[in-house]
Amino acid sequence: MSFYVVKRDLPGVTPEALKSAGIRAKSCCAEMTGEGQPVRWVRSFYLPATAQTHCYFEAQSKSAVEEANHRARIPFTDVVEVIEMTPEMV
After folding, report:
1. Whole-model pTM?
2. 3, 42 in Cβ contact below 8 A?
3. In total, how many domains does the chain have?
4. How far apart are CA 55 and CA 40, in angstroms?
5. Which domain holds residue 65?
C-alpha cells in the first residue's frame, strides 16, 4: 500500500462542510474496502490562509484514491503519491 495526498482548493468552505466531507470520505473508503479495493483516509489538514486542504490516503493505487473522492463528491485539484516520514522513522 502507498500513501497519497489529495490537494483541494475550497474557498469559502465552512467547518460543517469539512465535517460532512470527512463523513462521506470515511464512508466511501469503507465501502470500497468492503468491495475488495482497500482505501483508507488517514487524516486531513485545512490551511485557512489559503483555503486549501491536504488529505492523506492509503491505497494500492492513485486511481483508487481518485475513485473514493469521486464517490464522496469531494472536489480535488491533484492526487500525488507521497513518502511518509515521522520522527520515529529517523
Report:
1. 0.91
2. yes
3. 1
4. 11
5. 2-89
